[in-house]
Structure formats: structure tokens, C-alpha cells
Amino acid sequence: RGYMPTPTYSAHWIADPGLRRAIARYVQEERAAVAESIAELAAFGPYRKDV
Q1: 34-43 residue pLDDT tens
Q2: Among 36, 43, 32, 35, which Cα is nearest to 4's?
Q3: Whole-model pTM?
Q4: Residue 38 and residue 6: Cα distance in Å, rounded?
Q5: What long-range pairs does 36-42 form, CB within 8 A, spacing at least 24?
């Protein structure tokens, strides 16, 4: 048995404004990709969807 995919969160403070913006752009794109992956993997989960 596996675990259902679940998003994780963290909070970091980045002092450099330029680096902070670059990381924010990357995380925004990554968030969408992770959400898509979670949705795809959830289809293979052990829980019934017809209940």
C-alpha cells in the first residue's frame, strides 16, 4: 500500500530581492506541475471513488 500524494508546504525568508523573485516565479510554476501530478496519481489510490 502506498500513501496518497499530498502537497507539502514550507516557509522561507529570502533576503535578496532578486533571488526572492526568481524563486517565487519557479515555485509558482512548480506548484501547478505538482498539483497536476497529484491529480494524476490520485487516480491510482486505494480509496473507492464511487461511494
Answers
A1: 999 999 988 8
A2: 43
A3: 0.69
A4: 7
A5: 37/5, 38/5, 38/6, 38/7, 41/4, 41/5, 42/4, 42/5
